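During the reporting period, we have paired protein sequences with backbone structure tokens. One record among many follows, to show the layout:
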Amino acid sequence: MAAEIDIDRLVCIVVGVQLRAELGDRPLAYRVEQELRHRLDAALGKPPEGEPPRLSPVVITDVYYLNNEEMRTRPVISVGGPAMNALSAMLVDQLPTAVAIENTLVVQMDLELKDLRCAVWGMDHLDTVRAIDLFIAKGYLDQFVQGAVGRLEGR
């Protein structure tokens, strides 16, 4: 029997359930997952052999995330635009815009890290790729990690 999943250890990366989102945004989400895992290991240290990490990224669909109350308590990065990802559509009016390049891409997040939800997307797939690149290269992912680790450690 598989061990129970400790949702309190998860950091969610959410993609749309539509086929175009699965084909285009899910690979980007796995890239964010890899970058996030590296940064979390650096911030928290690798766990002892056989122990689970204190925080672990997971890629899930918008449908699962939005229909699971417990998951919605976790830090989250939404990948893909409002037309492809229902979480991004919800966050459009709920999160401040950290970066916007008109008619191209958007990074939405609370830079004070009181709200640990982000949305990263572009007007099309290539712009979403650029938005992810910017999110990682300009330190927004690092800032998000600081917030997630701070919450874990009670800061």
